[in-house]
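Table 4 source record.
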Amino acid sequence: MPQVSQPEGRPEEPPDTAASAVTTTRPGGTGPGPVSRPGPGGSRTGTAVNATPGHAHSGAPTTAPASESDARHRLTALQGLAALSLDAMASVAYGPESIVLVLAAAGGYGLGFTLPVTLAIAALLAVLVASYRQVIAAFPDGGGSYAVAKTHLGRRTSLVAAASLVLDYVLNVAVSVTAGVAALTSAFPALYDDRVGICLAVLVLITAINLRGIVDSARAFLIPTAVFVGAILTMVAVGLFRTAPVSTATADGHASVLADNATAVGALLLLKAFASGCSALTGVEAVANAVPSFRAPAARRAQRTEVALGALLGVMLIGLSVLIGRFHLQPVEGVTVLAQLADASLGHNAAFYVVQFATMVLLALAANTSFGGLPVLMGLLARDNYLPHVFGLKADRQVHRHGVLALAAVAALLLVFSGGDMNTLVPLFAIGVFVGFTICQTGMVRHWRRERSPRWRGKALLNGVGALLTGVSALVVTATKFTEGAWLIVIALPLLVLVFEAVHRAYARIGACLGLGRLPEPPRRARSLVVVPVSHLSRLTGEALNAAVSLGDEVVAVTVTHDTPEDRPATEALRRDWELWNPGVELLELPSATRSVGRPIAAYVSGLAACHPGTRITVLIPEAEPAHLWQRLLQNQRGAVVAHAVRRDTDAAICRLRFRLAPRTHTR
């Protein structure tokens, strides 16, 4: 059979056709009909049939060109910084603290290595920023490590990268929300018992904002981001001009966690401190994953955003580490390192509370990074048949709505499971992103070797060193956090890859059944029989028969009857009225010993198919479409019951005609 061009591994499938007045399907949802196929950066919808009584619609597919309205729903570089960098920015609240807490095991001598470890992390940050700038240029359709691995490392490795990113994004939402709420409950202890409800309320707020579009979320979070960055930079700048802490009120009365009588720092401890501090690098990949969300030229704007993110994050991390050494800060129980630094630099005054409040807000809102990056990644996976195609569809505001809702649902489950406790989730955090970093940079090494552009060896060396460092960090973090919950990630990551593979195989089977990539047989006309279930006479019945005689060579109306005293009058009235109306269509009564409506009709259609094997049978089900949404509660759902029975038990096509009831108008 002749071959036709077909996007690789992308089977066609019917889209959601709820908006159509007449919807024709085959059992199983794989019959001829409209085609919805997610494409790069958007969705493509093929021909759909709309047949409202009294109106005709063209079935020609249309493609909406890029417009100013579309551009308004995409990000500028500044908006991208606000929408996609919150995770990375907020990590300065716990990144330096993670380093200090590990080095505290070596006493005051160990704390002296805070700045060297931070400089090593900053160097890795520079490598990652440079690498992801190249990723953005090479893969402008987004996807980050998934896109790189798919091109250069093979399908299975790309799925591991995608799974690691999915896990990281989902955990980022849960960790960010719980961290922000933890800061709130620390300030107001009376709210501690309500932390789960508060976490869910914050999640609902962030989800609602993102459903309005990524640009709206960027605008909403631009001010909190600016306040946080400004507060941290001000604190660093002021602290550099001080020779001693202005205040130590926050740490007074709290027990120190510094080890006693330790005078040596081992290489393993430094490696563990480095790996723990690398939690500050989570979120660096988000910009590369969401390149299609930027305005044109998208790649250039995304690169600027990536550089700005790296510069701000590096300055804040190094600045805070310098202050830790300058003030000889020691970690204490119950008080964050950032709070101690704010106290020491700015004093225990209004400025101190501004820093704390800005940190609390940004931690809670850092979940927005996942809402900006994960739906785009899910759209790419859907395009490649590793997730349901519905995740590739976009709403009017360029929102991957189903991806946003799926992310919110899974994050809500995690919040409930953890009881709103940040410490339950933190051990699971950041492992996935290190796996993604390592795969991405390994793939970029192969990219440079294949491309052999000017100075490719230096670029490949840079990515190779980065892959080595992030790979070691991933192993160290997994090993040190394994018993604290990291084992869940070790199990969840391969399971997620298996889910991707299962979805892909399902789409492959559907494609084989549909014969995708092959020219179908030439169309041939067959005798057509349309069966119309009716229960009474009305305008709806008339419209149904009008549509039926237009569609088929032969039309049969059927009604299910029940031989009970309470049902006989209605049956006799319908028989009498039908004879009086005389529409030229036979009314066939289907007796039923039970109250079932769908099974007798399905049995009749099965009998017709057996007696007339060459006949195309269509069951046209008339339904009233209420003028108001609440009026759907008044419907008996008879049409849905009949459609389900026919779809389950026969191969007949199902055509549901929606007769729209116009709102009642008042005249004077």
